[in-house]
Amino acid sequence: MIVIKDNIAQVELQISSACQQAQRAANEVTLLAVSKTKPAEMILQAYDAGQRHFGESYVQEAVDKITRLQDKTDITWHFIGPIQANKTKLIAQHFSWVHSIDRAKVAKRLNAHRLAQDTPLNICLQVNISGEESKAGVSPTELPALLAEIADCQQLTIRGLMAIPEKNAPQASFMQMQALFTTLKKQYPSMDTLSMGMSADMQLAINAGATIVRIGSAIFGARR
Ligand SMILES: *Cc1c(COP(=O)(O)O)cnc(C)c1O
Fold first, then answer.
1. 113 CB under 6 A from ligand 1?
2. Ligand 1: nearest atom to the Cα of 217
3. Which CATH class is domain 4-220?
């Protein structure tokens, strides 16, 4: 049986030991529990263990769970999956954060669908740091132009960068993300977030300055 509470405690311990090795304070890194494909009951168990940030990748599945858990008003929902343009309204309505923006069209549609009375949507731009053909994300060279194109979107707050480095990526890939982040945040002072690190590469990510790690299977068990 999976004991979610114990798994979260274990992951928190890994985060704090990685922070210690990197000479960073443990509270600089936020644990985002990736609950995609997992039922609302499991999210509730994590919630009862104190977890408040959850990441989802599939819009309809996520909206169903968010609706079921709507009385937990202190949950922060993050969208981290591929974005189809026709799903931007649902995403803008139900999420506080979107990590996976890699084109201006999607950013502008999210901006248009985010109501003025709501707080702006927090966004990260996804960077294809390993240069994988088939992977989502903007290339590092196209990143400045994309930022410039969406900088005047009033209903978006540009919080930073997100990456999914390839399997067994070297520390250098994570460091490259850190360098991009450090450079760009001089120009965009709202940037304070570097979203990288998953169950298998959390340590490298934290070494390279990650401020959000996105952990799924180490908390909720393997996905089918
Ligand atoms: C599924 C997913 C994760 C979590 O991956 P694990 O290996 O289960 O920790 C993190 N980030 C993104 C973008 C994902 O889609």
1. no
2. 8
3. alpha beta
